[in-house]
Amino acid sequence: MIKRIFTVTFLTLLSLIPAFAQKGCYSRLENDTLVIGNSLVERKFIWNKGNLISFCLTDKMGNESWMNNTLKPDFHISKAKETAKGEYSSDIVAQTSIHPAYLEVTIAFSLESLDIRRIYRIYEDCPAIACDTYLKGETNSIFGGRPENLADKKNIEFSEDMKSRQVTAILDQFNFGGKHWQMRAVEFYDVTDWNNNLVFETNVIPYRKNSYRGNILLARNPEKQKGFFFLKEAPCSSVQLAYNGNDFTAEFGHFCATGLGISEKDIKPNEWVKTYGCVTGIFSGGELEALSALRSYQKNIRRLLPARDEMVMMNTWGDRSQDSKVNEKFSIIEVERAAQLGVTHFQIDDGWQVGKSPNSAVAKGSFKNIWDNPDYWKPDPVKYPNGLHPVVKRGKELGVEICLWFNPSVQHDYADWQKDAQAMIDLYNEYGIRTFKIDGLAIPTKESEINLRKLFDRVLEKTGYNVIFNLDATAGRRAGYHMFNEYGNIFLENRYSDWQNYYPYHTLRNLWQLSRYVPAEKLQIEFLNKWRNAGKYGNDIFAPANYSFEYLFAITMAGQPLAWFEGSGLPKEALGISSLINGYKKIQHHFHMGTILPVGNEPSGTAWTGFQSIADNNSGYFLFFRENNREKTGYINTWLKEGVKIKCSPILGNGKEMIQVVGRNGEVESQLENINDFALYKYEIIKK
């Protein structure tokens, strides 16, 4: 590598530090060059006293190195030019029950009075490198600023006119050059009580400098059939902190990830403050290779352990009784019904505790000043005179785990986070509760985000990392789909037949769209009691009553199924679903361990659609749905290659064994005799 004019005496000392490695992951600092990589990806930097400048990004499998065409530092936050305190260290972070082992490379430097720490994470056999940035000290810079409207810029007549305003704060950037890049920015929405369209894609050919919103940027060069991605580990764009209107900029072959999630006022003189994270990954090929590279990283954030993370949960809130029925007798009846259905987890929602929330049907409660009542998060002695012990005991007898709802005390940026954490730790220690639905979150400031992390981390540390949080995404400023992923899964949406906003194909569509960019197995997906409120839908052909109970459950199988109803309110015929649920549990973990991606057409109520779980190069699963479509035969585009011969063996639903050659665009033929029906297959490639 060509030497640059950045070498100082300090770098000579650093060059004596040996390389660090973790099962194929490595880093080393030699003279003016820092290298981080594994068997799939490598990134080289010019040291620049620690204020790193990317030199190249290498796709080892694709045998391609992208050279960076700029000498600007990757991270841009300040106009200060003097860099000091360049330090390098590398450590192996051992595997835990939360994450696999990885190599952590820490780079520290200062820009005048601002200290910066960039921590790179790289996992074995993963084509991506993550970077978490921390700031401490003081800065005179002002981050962000008003978004720039292109309509306010003058017309281009001279080369000087093409110069664009420098983005104030940049998390990471590459300038690979070239004018034939094709790019997609993907924006997400949560706040699902108000939003039912959760994924928006913007496809462009980058031209003059422009800005884009989203958590994911996928860029591909068709000249070489290769590309890279940025993943911004932050909430959805519409609820990010210190947001200046965009997440990425692109100008021909120059790409930037922007927006730190903090303002200059959030930086503390004596405490590290974390910005939003940024992940860079590479791929060779087309859409499948790009999405597989992204998913490879996402699956490393939190290990999926079958005894902890896999669940078929029942939560009674979906039947709108709220807390009016919640007590010991009701809970035991629900546990018994859950066992009959084959449900593995029973979650008692709001109402089990002494304190009364604003959503209470029996009292006018509040979330304000929760800790004025030190018993707020103890079982209500009137409803549960013996505590939760009888319910937990009955659950253990029947193989149903008891879970709870919890709403952290939001006032003053979660200043009482330690009390909240201790309340959950006490419930874990006394009753063995290890799954908490976390509701009512509001993250309007950086301080609130910091304290929430402290809360979750404290609970995990004190419970041996056995707790899982169901993070509610239905309202408020919350973490979205790409932040806090290490803590558990996502409670996606509230839907109720009482208000006729539960439509099965809507639920399927939301999961189908998200599964392209978010691991489906990290999403809790609801199915409701289709017999309730049937008359309210009138003659609507998409009403829940027009689907079998089995079909409603099948919609949830790519995710974590959520029985959003009171089991005791089901008719006797509903119990027949137990054979499907028990059959599903046998393959649930293997299905989820694969890369789950959408196939077929977007669910619309009348489509042939579904999911494919890619276990390896030779096998996986298909989950096909025939919605209210008049054709008994569906031709579904999958992620398989044209011309391979496959055998599909039915596991659940009404499919029949089939052997066929995959057609153009991965087309697989499927037959289902009836509308609103499904089939789950295990497929294997028998000839390539």
Characterise this structure:
It is a single chain. The chain has 688 residues and is an alpha+beta fold. It folds into three domains: 9-148 and 167-301, Beta-galactosidase, Chain A, domain 5 (Distorted Sandwich); 306-588, Alpha-Beta Barrel (TIM Barrel); 600-687, Immunoglobulin-like (Sandwich). 17% of the residues lie in helices and 32% in strands. It has eleven helices and 37 strands. Strands 7, 8, 9, 10, 12, 13, 15, 16, 19 and 20 form a ten-stranded antiparallel beta sheet that branches. Helix 4 packs parallel to helix 5 and helix 7 (417-431) packs parallel to helix 8. The longest helix is centred in the middle third of the chain and has 17 residues, at 446-462. The protein is globular. Mean pLDDT is 92; it is low at 1-18 and 162-167.
Number of domains: 3
Structural class: alpha+beta
CATH architecture assignment of the largest domain: Alpha-Beta Barrel
Average predicted confidence as pLDDT? 92
Q: What is the number of E strands? A: 37
- Estimate the strand proportion: 25-35%
CATH H-level superfamily title of the largest domain? Aldolase class I
CATH fold name of the largest domain: TIM Barrel
The span between the termini is 41 Å
What CATH first level of the largest domain would be assigned? Alpha Beta
Total DSSP helices: 11
Q: Residue ranges: pLDDT <50 for 5 or more in a row?
A: 1-18, 162-167
Largest sheet: 10 strands, antiparallel
Give the fraction of residues assigned to helices.
Answer: 10-25%
Morphology:
globular
How big is the Rg? 26 Å
Assembly form of the protein: single chain
